[in-house]
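[step 3/7] fold_predict: job queued, chain A
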Amino acid sequence: MIQVYRNVVGKHRDKFPDGKEYLLDTDTKEPAKFESVEVLINLFKFNGHDIETKEDLIRWGLNIESVDE
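[step 4/7] structure written:
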C-alpha cells in the first residue's frame, strides 16, 4: 500500500505532522491508501488530470511512501 503527500514549508508547516500534507480519503478524513502507483495514476486520469507516470506525480510536488496495510 502507498500514501501520497506533499511537503509543506513556511508558515503553514506547523499545521501538518512532520511537514507532510497527506491526500485524504473523503469518507474517513484519514490519509488515503492506494494499492499501487498505477491505481493512483488511474484515479488522477479519471478525474481529468494529465498524469501518465510516477515522474508526473513528482513534478506535481507529490511524494509517495509505502505503508503497512
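[step 5/7] annotate
The chain has a mean pLDDT of 94.
The longest strand covers residues 2-7.
exit 0
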